[in-house]
Write a structure and sequence with these properties.
mainly alpha; 3 helices
Length: 73
């Protein structure tokens, strides 16, 4: 269990499953369970996140919108 706590958060899902199986540790993960009812993934957004996302999609869009809880930026 100590080895799991030290390493599992820093490895891929595939590697974590392999490690869990090897150590006889019950491990379950579902990519879909962390989505909202509308199908979106939950994130902790911030301005830096929006800027990075905007730069990543800049070549593929004419306009990008950063949604904020209040219009006071």
């Amino acid at each position: 269990m100590k080895m799991w706590d030290q390493h599992a958060c820093h490895m891929s899902l595939e590697k974590a499953l392999e490690m869990a199986k090897k150590e006889k540790f019950d491990f379950y993960f579902d990519w879909e369970s962390c989505r909202t009812e509308e199908g979106y993934y939950r994130i902790e957004g911030c301005i830096a996140y929006c800027v990075k996302r905007g730069l990543a999609f800049a070549d593929y869009a004419d306009m990008l919108w950063m949604e904020t809880p209040t219009p006071d930026l």
